[in-house]
Amino acid sequence: MNPVDPDGYEQHPLLNKNVRDSTSRGEGLLVAVTHELHSHGTVRIAHIRPRGGIEWTTAADNIQHL
Q1: Three-class SS state of 47
Q2: d(Cα 49, Cα 55) in Å, to the nearest integer?
Q3: Residue 47, beta-bridge partner list
């Protein structure tokens, strides 16, 4: 697991790199990986911003480096 700052942002090695979401097949820049607390535990969320599109989120385990 990568270090997480006090605000819940993970210092992920693919930050600011182009990635693919294996679920949606969408591609874009990984702008953040956040840790969100839910009743069943902590969930790692990847925030991806495509070129000229709308940012979306997916499970951090779904991202692949291009």
Answers
A1: strand
A2: 4
A3: 32, 57
| Closest C-alpha to 2, from 34, 25, 30, 24 | 34
Q: What is the pTM of this model?
A: 0.91
Angstrom distance (rounded) from CA 5 to CA 64: 23
Which strands form 18-21's sheet, in the order they lie side by side? 56-59, 41-49, 27-38, 18-21, 63-65
Q: Which parts of the chain have pLDDT scores under 70?
A: none
Beta-carbon neighbour count of residue 10 at 10 Å?
19
